[in-house]
Amino acid sequence: MKQLYALFTFLLIITTLHAQVKLSADGPGDTYELIESKGFGVESPDCRHTSFGRHVTEIFDNTLGKNVFVFHSHPVEDDDRCGADDRVRMEIKGGNGSSDEMQHTQGQTAYYRWKFKLDANFIPSSRFTHIFQIKAIDGDAGAPLMTITPRAGNPQKMQIIHSAGEGSGSLGTVHQVDLAPFKGTWVEAYVKYKSSEGSAGTFEITIKRVSDGATLLSYTNNSLDMWRTGASYNRGKWGVYRGKDAVLRDEQVRFADFCISESSASLCPSDIGSEPPPICQPVVASGDDGNVAANVLDNNLSTRWSATGDGQWIQFCLSSPASITGVQIAFYSGNTRTSTFDVLVGDDGINWTTASAGRVSSGTSLNLETFSFSAITGKYVRIVGHGNSVNAWNSYTEVKIQTGSGSGQTITLAPQHDAYVRNGTAAGTTHGTTDANILVTKLNSTASAGNDRHTYLRFDAGSAGSTITSAVLRLYGKIDDDRSTNVPINVYGVSNTTWTESTITWNNKPATGASALQTATVTDATARYYSWDITAYVQSELAAGRTLISLALLSTVATDPRITWNSKETGSNGPQLVITTSTTLQSQRQLLVAKAEEEASELRLSSFPNPFRGSNTVVVNLAKEGYTQLAAYDMTGRQVAVLVNARLAAGAHRIPFRPEALPAGIYLLRLSNNGQTITQKLVKE
């Protein structure tokens, strides 16, 4: 009897262990092989979008402190499994090649748990976007039983949608919440459901924020149809599946820590609260190509941080919370291409507020460019890149964080001179005297000349001093009537500062700069203030000793109505140049570099012999136990070997490196531990 009991216990343990499937990222390379080894199928657009390669990659995530999966989706180049072209799909799933634990037959209860993170600027399709599905194999309808669906709208929503298949019983959208709290943050999803027909089915879902365990979505229904007539089994699908429309952009959705069980939720436990808070590293990044994040703090424009892909970011932790008023960035190849990025500010490195979105570099400079915004208090600053005008690379050579205290001041300047000019028969008219109470911009909508108008303004910024954190041009105006809406107005720098409102005409107007400083869109016929951030231009003029700031406003879209503005002679709501100064502006470079040097000294990397021929020994010294990755790269940035991808104890570790198959040349060893990264060159003869 004891032997039978022991055998029964052993079989029960074995059955329990098998009733669980786990999938976690283990580092770049062989991602599909890893996914398929756990019984998941891959549905990808790879054969259509061959130039991109595999549409699931792996990357180290600094928030979770581990490797995660990145699902890539492209609305133009991708399709649905190299077939339907009106939608794009990148999903992993259970299926016919899966173990029994991933195939849920009628009457069985399944438990799922996983993490995901939508980009901070994620855009759902106006048609459909599913990031999770429960689908039947066979049965009376192809629609999923349940989906997690980000939904377009105002506001955007996160929806839970049910479909019972053919006939009655479909509930449609059973629950929805605002989508905003899900963007830019890691969440953990838990799903429990019973695959039964009619009222015998059940479904339960809870989604919590990883950083603090806050519940963002919760729904339970203990009586709903969760089975298709004629089905073989149900299975889960995870990824990005969306209908194509005009608003979609390339997306990267991160996933981590998949767990599936048919036995108990305890086999897929939550680890919320078990993850340590982020360490205040001076600078970290979402990834790199061997040009590491620390390079932006070395005061050397010849080094850089680089990472490819929309949404790649570089993040800074200040020594203490500060009033953050902007960033200064020098861009790699910044004189030949423009780069687009957002700036986020936060208190904890997990939850973020968008301080400024859609900023674009000048495309004309290799030096630091200033991007100011309204002051926001925080300790962490994240710059999220959206590639450049040539390719998807985000490459910065230097970065400074602008901070200011209450000792600064705001100065509002009225123009010394303002006037508009008009072509055609009025090309010789000085409207600054004949129409002093109004300013006008207009691009003629017909071929006949005589209706184009440009507005000129000149300010004296000598009283602002040389240390300014923000310069914003403000004009009060509107479209004359409702025949046009949403008219973009560009502001340009004007090098000539000798013109006056009493003498300027279309015939003698000074030339504008080649590129617009910024654009504002005049929406309708209701008068209001519109703003243009011209901080970088004003700073450069003051730095060159030029205190007179001359500007021109031009319409860029042809309209029948005029766009009219108050002039300084109108009497109220006149033009303004609002300048903010700070006597305590600092880049935090000294604090960041000092902290970086202090912490980097705890992490050491060496190798011998170097140069070497057949084999080499790498010595790693860790001050703290933690997740460690050691990899080798060739000089193109391609990873050629992974030596360590595990959690290591503090202390010294000796790792053999035998790259027999690698050709002679220069390689880069890259060591990452607890968010810190150092590199060393390695020469194979």
Automatic annotation (TrEMBL):
It is found in: Secreted. It comes from the Bacteria. Coiled coil: none annotated. Keywords: Secreted, Signal. It holds the Pfam family F5_F8_type_C. Residues 1-19 form the signal peptide. The keyword Secreted applies. Residues 259-406 form the F5/8 type C domain. GO terms for cellular component: extracellular region. NCBIfam families: DNRLRE_dom, Por_Secre_tail. This is T9SS C-terminal target domain-containing protein.
